[in-house]
Design a protein that fits this description.
single chain; mainly alpha; globular; 15 helices; 339 residues
């Protein structure tokens, strides 16, 4: 645990005064994973209510700022928040177990459904069910777009950028990979209020992403190719599941031909019906492409950044979130239940 020194809860709190056992951390977040219905908004609300409002692991202001940081990083923010909170209570090992506990139920359920989908022909036997699920998923995605838009589009430049990005995507067929950094750069140039340093830091993962894109073009084994596609999706898709999904669809259906459009929509419908981040559809894509090893490989790749960023950059991320506030992680906290 020597590596946790300086990366766990803030130094203002006595080390060990607010730490839980690793077993209790895993069980608490395993329970969160079993109850993770309704998409990221519902998942974050559940985590906030217990860990922030009831247990007071961190004050609400710091939590809101930390959430804002994770919302601009690649990966599912609900999962990253679990890793962050696990780090506060148990260091790096607590962070890993919190993230593992949160993702494990959805992963096992999706893997089981993927096996049944192939072995029992669920796509044919439950066609009507999947058809209804696809409609429900479409409604959930539309609701999420509206909800996120209301939350983040709060000035005229952002509104104009959203409209232009939508038009380029729908009518010009532009991919979202150039649109995301382009819109970010355009907004910075428009407002010119934060200086170049935050922008440069925002693109800190760009070199690694570029390397992975190039590596993905090299002829490799199918398992390695699946792993690289998952890792690329985990690194270059900002904004959570709703950017990962079109990336995977473009890669697995359009570019690679691993799945048909109908199969991908079936996987999306199943992912929307499970207690899990929507990016758990990656397990379905990997299994249909490369069997059990493929499902494991793509899931590992796509979740890896969501573990690495909160675990190994915990101190810096907390510093960003606490820039205008003081972290009170343990002040007034109650002993955490074993969950």
């Amino acid at each position: 645990m020597a590596g946790d020194q300086g990366l766990s809860a803030p130094a203002a709190n006595p080390r060990g005064s607010c730490r839980d056992s690793l077993g209790s951390i895993f069980l608490r977040f395993l329970r969160f994973g079993l109850l993770a219905w309704g998409g990221p908004a519902a998942q974050i609300d559940m985590i906030t209510r217990e860990c922030v409002e009831e247990e007071r692991w961190v004050d609400e202001e710091t939590f809101r700022k930390t959430l804002a940081v994770y919302q601009v990083l690649p990966g599912p923010e609900a999962h990253e928040l679990c890793v962050y909170l696990g780090h506060l209570r148990g260091g790096r090992r607590g962070a890993f177990l919190a993230g593992l506990g949160f993702m494990l139920p959805g992963f096992l359920l999706m893997l089981g459904l993927s096996v049944l989908y192939v072995a029992a022909g669920l796509d044919e036997r439950l066609d009507e069910v999947f058809y209804g699920l696809k409609a429900a998923v479409g409604a959930l995605v539309a609701m999420a777009v509206v909800r996120l838009g209301r939350k983040f589009i709060d000035d005229l430049p952002l509104l104009i950028l959203a409209i232009v990005s939508f038009a380029l995507t729908v009518f010009a067929g532009a991919g979202f990979l150039p649109i995301l950094p382009g819109a970010g750069l355009a907004y910075w140039l428009w407002t010119a209020g934060g200086g170049p340093t935050p922008v440069l830091r925002s693109f800190a993962v760009a070199p690694a992403s570029a390397i992975l894109v190039v590596a993905g073009a090299v002829s490799v084994s199918l398992t390695a190719e699946i792993l690289l596609e998952g890792l690329k999706a985990g690194l270059v898709t900002f904004g959570g599941a709703y950017t990962v999904i079109p990336f995977l669809q473009d890669s697995a259906v359009e570019a690679k031909g691993w799945l048909t459009e109908g199969e991908f929509l079936d996987g999306l419908a199943m992912a929307g019906a499970l207690p899990a981040p929507a990016i758990i559809i990656s397990t379905f894509v990997g299994y249909l492409t490369g069997g059990l090893v493929g499902g494991l490989a793509i899931t590992f790749g796509i979740f890896l950044p969501a573990f690495v960023l909160p675990i190994f950059f915990h101190q810096r991320l907390v510093a960003v979130a606490r820039a205008r506030g003081r972290d009170r992680s343990c002040s007034g906290s109650r002993p955490a239940s074993s969950g």
